[in-house]
Amino acid sequence: MNDATPLEQRAVSRSAEITRAALIKAATAVFAEHGYEGGSVRLITQRALANQAAVNYHFGGKEGLYREVLLVATKTLEQNSFLSPEEVDARSPEEALRLYLHQFLLPLVKRDRVCSYLRIFAWESVRPSEPFNAFVATSPLRIFRLAERVVRRFLPDDAPAETVTFTTLWLAQQPMFFVREAERLARPPFSLKFDDASLERLVDTLTSLSLRGLANI
Amino acid sequence: MNDATPLEQRAVSRSAEITRAALIKAATAVFAEHGYEGGSVRLITQRALANQAAVNYHFGGKEGLYREVLLVATKTLEQNSFLSPEEVDARSPEEALRLYLHQFLLPLVKRDRVCSYLRIFAWESVRPSEPFNAFVATSPLRIFRLAERVVRRFLPDDAPAETVTFTTLWLAQQPMFFVREAERLARPPFSLKFDDASLERLVDTLTSLSLRGLANI
DNA sequence: TTTCGCTTAAAACATCCGTTTGAATTTCAA
DNA sequence: TTGAAATTCAAACGGATGTTTTAAGCGAAA
C-alpha cells in the first residue's frame, strides 16, 4: 500500500497517478450522491474504470479514499472562496453579510465539483461519519468560521457566548439549506430553478431577511 | 398478506395487532437513527422481538412498513401540534412567529417519538426515498404550510410568489436545523445542551432574528 | 374435537457490501 | 536487457441485506 510506506522514496508511475485521480474524482461524485456509507466501492471503481482492489491499494480502503476526498474538498473550497476572514473585517457589516450569502449560494448556479463537496457536507450534517468527525475535530469548517466573523460584526462585544453561537449557526445554515435542497426545490411543489438572475434575487431576499428580519420587509 | 386482501373481512388475532404495533414502533426508532436505506429489517424485527418474515407478512415488505411509519408520523405531528393554521391567523404576526418557532423547536427538549419523526424527515431532506416522494407528492408537509401562513402575515399581499417561497423556505428550515443537528451541537466545539431554559433563550434569539434581523440586535 | 385459515417461526435464497488474495502485467532503474 | 518493484486484475472471501420458502403454531368456527 502506498500510504503505509511513506518514508522511503517510491517510484510512482504515471498511470498510477491517473488511477488515483480518477478514483478521487469518481468517489467525489458517488459520495455526494449517496453519502459515505451508501457510496459503494464497486460503483466508484466502476465509474473510474478502475479495479476494485485499487481503492485498497492506493488509499488503504474506503475510509482512506473518503479522507482524501474530504481533504481535496476543503482545500478547493478554501481556494475558490473569494471571501476571506480578513475580507469580512475590511468591509461594512452589510457588505460582509451579502458577500457571505453570495459566496455560499454560488453552488446553486455553478453545478460543478464545489456543489458535490457541499453535498457531501450536507450528508455529514445528518449522519456524521467516523472519518468526517476525525477530520473536522482538528479545525472547524470554514463556513462556520466565516459566519461567526460576520455575526461578530453585528453583535455587541459583550454578547453572551451562547447568543453568538446561536446566531452563528442560524446564519451558517441558511445558504447550506438551499444548496442541499437544490434538487428537491427544483421539483414541485416549489419548482425553483436557479439561474444568475434568480440567484441574485435569492441573495437579496436572504440578505434583507437576515439584516432586517421579517418585520421590515 | 394483510395488505393484499383488504376487501374481505379478516380475522385479526390479538397477537397480530401486537406484532404490527411493535414493528411500527421499532421501525420508527431504527429509521430515525439510520434513515430508510440504512435501517435494516433485521434490526427492526430484532428490536420488536418479531420474526423477519413478519415485515413481509404484515406490510408487504420494508417499503410498506416505512409507508406505515410515515403515515403514523404525519398524523401524530398534526395532532400533537398546538399551532393550527387557523391559530396563525388569529394571533398577531409576532405571536404567530414565536409560536411557530416554539412548536418546531420543542423536540429539542422533548426527546420522544416526535423527535424520531422529525429525524426521519431530516433524513429525507438529504436523500429523499422513493416511498417518501410518493408520500409527500399528495400534500406538502405541515411545517411548510404553517411557515407560509406565518410569512404571509408579514409580507404584503402583492408580494411576488418567488419572494413568498424564498421567505417560507428560509423560515421553515430554521427550527429544522437545530432539531436535526441536536446531537452534533451537543458535542464540542458547540457543546449545546438544551433544557427548558436554554430552549426559551433559543426561541427568543431566533424570534428576534427572524423578526428584526441582525441589524436590530 | 376436528378443521381451516391466520399468524409466527427458522432457514435458506440471491444479492450486495468492503476487503483480501495471488497471480499477471507494467514500470523503471541498474 | 534484465530483474525487482510497482501496479493492475479477476476471483473469491466473509458478512450483511431484503425477500422467499416451508413448516409449525394458534384461535375460532363447524
Automatic annotation (TrEMBL), chains A, B:
Keywords: DNA-binding, Transcription, Transcription regulation
Pfam families attached to this UniProt entry: CecR_C, TetR_N
UniProt DNA-binding residue ranges: 40-59
Keyword flag Ligase: no
Chain ranges of the HTH tetR-type domain: 17-77
Keyword Transcription: yes
Protein name: CerR family C-terminal domain-containing protein
Species this protein is from: Methylocystis borbori
